[in-house]
């Protein structure tokens, strides 16, 4: 246990420093508020509920940074209707009980629309508050279908394929690989509890032979992995928000269950800082639910932009692409509505967006909204199963199975 505990403390410390470097502390030193650029009109205030210190910080800070960059890019190009976008930011720590007060504070600061960049459980709590406040919101990296399902879904939108689509893709993968018995290793966060409930309910294609849970701040998962091994699954699925827990899980599985196929959520694929902290070769063969396809020309353009901004070694994530697209979609809606003074008109403008060419997913993947379609994904090809190589970096699409691109 001492070796795992020591390694965990090193991993946790490094990841914490990485998160701080990316996000800072809420709306203070690390926030790097976008300037007005070349836009000269009165600012359009957009609120962002960003978890920068809670369980969702490992992915929220990545998306939050790119949202800021996208806003700056819009402002550098003259803004929206000649007006700059201005971000105001608060932090709910992925705590559902804090969401109402955070959203109310953002509106009191003049926000006319919101980005909900936090954990799924917290965003679900935001729905009824949005109805009370009467302003539309986009959840850039949300993946739980409940976020945009009735009730109180009139003002909330999300981009990515949901866990229902994930379940179909996993089932296709398991069938193709001859996997019938699945073991699960999960963290204890409320975000993952909600995601697991939705995901597993749609995965009748496999038998769950064992489910083991570990604390998000666990320093040793060897007992949980030993019990998984005793259940003799054909494969293991790790569900976590990522960060230190995911690294510890993959290190332990790689050691104790070598040779057993491993799958994971999008978290590990979208957190490059974690790859560097995993044991050498620990991620080799791991397959994760990805959304980045380098054959997409819009993805290629965003990669170039991100690397110019963040350095040539910057690894793009789905969080980056979804954050970028969220800003562009809101910009388009504001232009269609002719401004932000009428929230009903702005909401209708969001619903009128059709076939927006996404920056993530396969090359012909698009996003559309409607009065009864608050989930943007047009078909399953916003997803891709990606395999890690021996260098602990994604090496490309998994050859055994990929989701079909049909709408």
TrEMBL record:
<feature type="domain" description="Leucine-binding protein">
    <location>
        <begin position="43"/>
        <end position="366"/>
    </location>
</feature>
<dbReference type="InterPro" id="IPR051010">
    <property type="entry name" value="BCAA_transport"/>
</dbReference>
<dbReference type="InterPro" id="IPR028082">
    <property type="entry name" value="Peripla_BP_I"/>
</dbReference>
<dbReference type="Pfam" id="PF13458">
    <property type="entry name" value="Peripla_BP_6"/>
</dbReference>
<feature type="signal peptide">
    <location>
        <begin position="1"/>
        <end position="23"/>
    </location>
</feature>
<dbReference type="InterPro" id="IPR028081">
    <property type="entry name" value="Leu-bd"/>
</dbReference>
<keyword id="KW-0732">Signal</keyword>
<comment type="similarity">
    <text>Belongs to the leucine-binding protein family.</text>
</comment>
<protein>
    <submittedName>
        <fullName>ABC transporter substrate-binding protein</fullName>
    </submittedName>
</protein>
């Amino acid at each position: 246990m001492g070796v795992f505990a020591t390694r965990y403390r090193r991993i946790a410390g490094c990841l914490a420093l990485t998160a701080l470097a990316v996000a800072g502390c809420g709306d203070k030193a690390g926030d790097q508020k976008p300037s007005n650029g070349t836009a000269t009109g009165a600012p359009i205030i957009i609120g962002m509920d960003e978890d920068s210190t809670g369980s969702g910080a490992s992915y929220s800070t990545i998306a939050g940074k790119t949202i800021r960059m996208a806003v700056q890019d819009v402002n550098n190009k003259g803004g929206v209707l000649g007006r700059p976008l201005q971000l105001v930011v608060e932090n709910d720590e992925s705590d559902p009980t804090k969401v109402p007060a955070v959203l109310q504070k953002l509106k009191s600061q003049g926000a006319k629309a919101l980005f909900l960049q936090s954990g799924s459980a917290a965003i679900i709590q935001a729905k009824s508050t949005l109805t009370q406040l009467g302003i539309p919101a986009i959840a850039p990296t949300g993946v739980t279908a409940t976020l945009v399902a009735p009730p109180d879904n009139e003002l909330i939108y999300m981009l990515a394929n949901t866990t229902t689509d994930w379940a179909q893709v996993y089932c296709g993968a398991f069938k193709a690989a001859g996997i019938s018995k699945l073991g699960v290793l999960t963290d204890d966060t409320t975000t993952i509890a909600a995601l697991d409930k939705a995901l597993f309910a749609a995965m009748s294609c496999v038998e769950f032979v064992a489910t083991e849970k570990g604390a998000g701040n666990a320093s040793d998962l060897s007992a949980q992995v030993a019990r998984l091994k005793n259940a003799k699954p054909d494969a293991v699925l790790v569900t976590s928000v990522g960060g230190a827990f995911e690294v510890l899980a993959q290190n332990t599985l790689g050691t104790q269950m070598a040779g057993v196929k491993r799958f994971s959520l999008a978290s590990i694929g979208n957190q490059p800082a974690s790859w560097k902290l995993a044991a050498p070769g620990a991620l080799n063969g791991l397959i994760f639910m990805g959304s980045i396809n380098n054959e997409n020309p819009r993805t290629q353009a965003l990669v170039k932009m991100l690397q110019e901004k963040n350095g040539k070694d910057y690894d793009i994530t789905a969080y980056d692409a979804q954050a970028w697209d969220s800003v562009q979609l809101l910009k388009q809606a504001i232009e269609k509505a002719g401004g932000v003074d009428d929230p009903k008109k702005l909401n209708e403008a969001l619903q009128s967006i059709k076939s927006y060419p996404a920056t993530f997913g396969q090359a012909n993947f698009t996003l559309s909204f409607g009065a009864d379609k608050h989930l943007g994904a047009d078909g399953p090809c916003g997803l891709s199963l990606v395999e890690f190589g021996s260098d602990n970096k994604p090496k490309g699409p998994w050859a055994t199975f990929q989701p079909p691109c049909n709408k």
